[in-house]
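Reviewer comment 2.1 asked that we show a complete input and output for one of the modelled complexes. We chose the adenosine-5'-triphosphate case, as it is the one discussed in the main text.
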Amino acid sequence: ANAAPLLQVKDLRAWYNESQALHGMNFDVRPGELVTLIGRNGAGKSTTLRSIMGIVRKRTGSICYEDEELIGKRTFQIARKGIAYCPEERAIFSLLNVGENLTLPPVLRQGGVPDSELLKQFPNLRERRKSRGTLLSGGEQQMLAIARILRTGSQFLLLDEPSEGLAPVVVKEIGQLILRLKAQGYTILLVEQNLQFARLVADRHIVIEHGAVVDTLSAEELVSDMGRVKNYLGV
Ligand code: ATP
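Response of the prediction step:
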């Protein structure tokens, strides 16, 4: 638990045109950790992921990954370092079938899941491999969106609300998938509104308000001190 951070974010500020969304974020993620970003709508959780990935480009401060500065780098350069991003809207190609969606991302680094293995690791998707993206359920789309990035060889996964809009039983399946990825050694930064889900999977929770970190809770604290969290989220 005391390993040097894999990702170190310092005084991160980010803007959409003239509108500032992040106001000095500070946090880090250690290798193999599973950390959630929690907070109200509009707090800046998605913007944090998009800033790390270089999708929001107007940003200052420091985002250090494996001792390399990501600020100033473009998304394709950041992807080549082994960071992958799963957006909230999942971005499945609706006219392509499951197999085609899976093998679309480029292999960027060694250590990616080979094509021959991908469908073996996702039996539900194997059954649907000929189905077009549009015909998949929300849960299947989310599985596919996560499975797809494993091909690239990325070891650091940015997942934006994988549980969103899914039935409880499907949320559980996604939770099991994420825990499996953690067991396989992936490091994961997860945006999550669903606290029941967050507490099932994460080691640590970072609370964001108005584009800044206001608190950090261990997995145990999220359970024992739910009042503290509900206070932030206004639930
Ligand atoms: P949500 O779960 O609602 O997406 P969030 O915590 O992820 O919440 P962000 O989406 O990061 O919040 O939004 C942070 C702030 O940036 C908000 O004030 C939001 O209105 C603004 N914002 C987000 N996306 C854009 C955009 N494309 N253009 C302009 N402003 C944006």
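Residues 149 and 187 are 13 Å apart (CA to CA). We note this here for comparison with the apo prediction described in Section 3.2.
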